[in-house]
Design a protein that fits this description.
The protein contains five helices and 20 strands. By secondary structure, the chain is mainly β.
């Protein structure tokens, strides 16, 4: 900070570093004391600093503006007071939106800025015209790749069976997979485009055979949940040792405020045919498996991943 030349008495200056933003993003400076004082600039080139000359002795919000459901919405940002002749250099590392977190990853600052358990609110369409808020939490940082964040839903999305039939696999059509795909489709476009394709493994029920699948929204597998192999099969290389959930307590999830079990993406042991079983996390946070021959249902827990573009 310091005193800047070339602007009028009674003014200060805000310089925004845009290295963490995308081309076309709008940076906004808004007075918190006078709603008529708003300055907007669009980022023409990533890395080009944007300069705002503003009245001094005022309190400002510096943020991005994104199109959410067709509405220009302020997201993230920081609040600063400008003194006379003062120049503030701002790097608006926004950890409250997926777009902001993508910028943090692109700047390779995730370990300095983000923490396990940080929450971000996204918008999804749940059958209505107006999108609703949905909360995701950071479950892992740099788990499988450098500059990566894995998000886990804070609460259960809904309740479903898993019916896959026979020695079913998540890689084939089943109800859980369909709900994950529907969650992805329900996301607003500016969030949806940030999600990275993720390749995972899924144990076929009543077998020791794994199949791989790729998805942008997925449930965690058994080993990611509990940190150990399934009791009835040896996990392949693509099943990772490092658990997304570090304690049993943080595996407990609720549906409409009530503790509810939820499915992983792995099949279970047990009978063949209509009596096959699927692994799940119970209301205590313990991992196990249950049959769905009586149309047993458990919760759907969407997860997705962001990684740095380079």
């Amino acid at each position: 900070m310091g005193f800047a030349d070339g602007f009028y008495y009674g003014q200060g200056r805000i310089i925004c570093d845009t290295s963490t933003f995308s081309v076309g993003d709008t940076i906004r400076v808004r007075s918190m004391t006078d709603s008529n004082k708003v300055w907007n600039q669009q980022v023409a080139t990533v890395g080009t600093a944007l300069v705002f000359t503003v009245p001094c002795y005022d309190y400002y919000k510096i943020c991005t503006v994104q199109d959410i459901g067709g509405v220009a919405t302020e997201v993230g940002g920081t609040y600063r007071t400008i003194d006379y002749g003062q120049t503030l250099f701002i790097n608006v590392l926004d950890k409250t939106t997926l777009g902001g977190i993508q910028g943090i990853l692109n700047a390779h600052q995730e370990l300095n800025v983000l923490s396990i358990g940080d929450e971000v609110t996204i918008k999804i369409y749940d059958g209505g015209i107006t999108p609703i808020d949905w909360t995701m939490q950071i479950g892992a940082l740099d788990l499988y790749d450098s500059h990566e964040v894995i998000f886990v839903s804070k609460n259960i999305l809904d309740i479903t069976a898993v019916n896959a039939g026979g020695n079913g696999s998540y890689a084939n059509t089943n109800d859980l997979k369909a709900r994950m795909e529907l969650f992805y489709d329900s996301m607003v476009d500016n969030d949806k485009v940030l999600l990275k394709e993720t390749t995972k493994s899924s144990l076929k029920s009543n077998t020791t055979s794994y199949e791989t699948f790729s998805a942008k929204v997925f449930p965690p597998n058994y080993k990611e949940v509990g940190g150990s192999n399934l009791p009835w099969g040896t996990s392949p290389v693509t099943q990772y040792q490092y658990p997304i959930f570090t304690t049993q307590a943080n595996r407990i999830k609720t549906y409409n405020g009530t503790g509810t079990s939820w499915w992983t993406c792995d099949g279970g042991g047990g009978s063949t045919g209509a009596n096959i079983e699927w692994s799940y996390v119970g209301t205590s946070g313990a991992v196990g498996y249950q049959g769905f021959y009586s149309n047993n249902t458990s919760g759907v827990l969407p997860c997705f991943r962001l990684t740095a573009d380079s």
